[in-house]
Specification:
By secondary structure, the chain is an alpha/beta fold. The chain is 48% helix and 18% strand.
């Protein structure tokens, strides 16, 4: 059998410049049945997304080197990655930010801090939507 159970689990790329946040999200996602890769800035997010082609990307919007807004625009503008759902993770809860995130190409918007269960539920929803879109 060529497909191991590990390969069947959806891969989530967690992008956050704050190491403790990355580790917390990664641990909870792994506990919830996902594989996880991590990136600490927007450029690293692009590199890892092109290399790994994850199933979902959790993208902090305030990042060094290249911010999450620009990284998302580039991911959505590239044929290799435009199909990957991007969930904006941000501490900015101001009115209009979710609309700005959508315009940048984000498929969903989660305000930090968020409960881990809510984040996992959002990731599951994105995987389900992506699978349904691919089935069409």
């Amino acid at each position: 059998m060529t497909n191991s159970p590990e390969k069947q689990k959806p891969l989530v790329l967690v992008v956050d410049d704050y190491q403790d946040a990355r580790e917390m999200y990664a641990e909870y996602l792994e506990f919830s049945g996902f594989r996880v890769a991590e990136a600490k800035n927007g450029q690293e997010a692009l590199d890892k997304a092109f290399e790994l082609v994850p199933d979902v990307i959790l993208m902090d919007l305030s990042l060094p080197v290249m911010d999450g807004w620009e990284a998302t625009r580039r991911l959505k503008g590239d044929a290799r990655t435009r199909h990957i759902p991007v969930v904006a993770l941000t501490g900015h809860a101001l009115k209009g930010h979710s609309e700005d995130a959508n315009q940048a190409g984000c498929d969903a918007y989660v305000t930090k801090p968020c409960l881990p269960d809510a984040l996992v539920e959002q990731v599951r929803l994105m995987v389900k939507r992506r699978d349904e879109a691919q089935a069409r």
